[in-house]
# Entry
Amino acid sequence: MYGLSDEDLAIQTRARGFADELIPFEEQAEAAGGELPADLTAGHAKRARELGLHSTNMPAELGGGGCTTLQQVLVQEQMGRVTNALGWVAATPPSWLPGVATADQIDRYVRPAIASEREECYAITEEGAGSDVDAIEATARRDGEEYVLNGVKWHVTSYNTADFAFFQAKLDGGAHHGEHAMFLVDLPSPGVRVVRTPAYSHTISHHHPIVAFEEVRVPVANLVGAEGDGMTFAYEWFRFERLMVAARCLGAAERLTAEMTAFAATRRAGGGVIADHGLVAGMLADSLTELFAARAMTYETARAIDRDPADTRTAHAQCSMIKLYCSEMAGRVADRAVQVFGGRGYMRENVAERFYRELRVERIWEGTSEVQRAIIAGQMVKRGPLSLA
Ligand SMILES: Cc1cc2nc3c(=O)[nH]c(=O)nc-3n(C[C@H](O)[C@H](O)[C@H](O)COP(=O)(O)OP(=O)(O)OC[C@H]3O[C@@H](n4cnc5c(N)ncnc54)[C@H](O)[C@@H]3O)c2cc1C
# Structure
């Protein structure tokens, strides 16, 4: 199905097998606030590397998988079948970085990230600047051979496991005053502190704290690209992440559809199995139908990027469309799955309950559904709908 090549099928099969290895640990993680024993997590990370599922998006010449975009989607789709973020061990370091990094940054950050010796986090969002990234108030001031960084960042995912951060700020002074710039900040660094670590809906080991950067000094060598480039990187990364959000939502919807179908085919109520009741059957049918549509559009978007990587404008609109559709589709499927499981679907030991909470954020991070709709509509008006779909 879907015209996958032998190589595509091989990596998909490896990823599927790995997801099946992780699934039995979900309930243990859920019961322990998302944490598994460190040796277990280290073993999972090692296994992801051995199977070629880590850094699939990074260039082969730097030690990455050098996979096609479609293959990256196939891997993340399988990781999406697993709850509690246990699939995050198949990490995708920032693939936009090698193209703009200096040789020194490649050695200090890119190669170690690919080797899973280092891990990044993103400090972009602020209390007053989420969807509107341009509203950030964080500043970067040049002082001799250093920049001095100040700002308070929200929702810094994986800060507790990362050992460097991408910090986005507006330049204070100089030729590019007021423009965006991105910096690499080693963690821990003097002046970086956690303000607080709020609890979120999902139960995962990666935290999203509010982090203050106060008079943090980084060498000029830690500026990514040039002054004024900050937003360019954000857009490139958004395209990639939106595609991967879509892929993981496919996996989640597939798992939920399979699990609710198996339950509905055996659960007896009202004189037969519940799948025989039209109202339940309709929930099953709608879920698979929407998954089919979502998968077809996601694979086609990935293939289009592989065919013509230079056409970033079409990719930008299509990545928004699949992120919007797949995240909303998966949310609907999770809602139906809870309903099909009945009271069991409301128990944390049930996959439907966990996905019901976990999938909600897919409509918020990497650009909310409203922001995706605004991007799509904007492109339709500018370029005409027929060029985009
Ligand atoms: C669990 C989690 C992890 C995250 N991880 C990170 C991270 O690692 N690094 C990071 O930098 N950020 C991270 N974020 C932040 C995330 O990207 C933002 O929450 C998201 O972009 C929305 O911004 P906001 O929360 O400020 O909402 P707001 O921008 O305040 O939006 C509130 C509401 O207004 C709507 N809205 C806003 N603008 C428009 C518009 N122009 N048109 C129509 N509607 C609009 C939104 O769609 C939403 O419904 C994370 C968030 C969460 C929840």
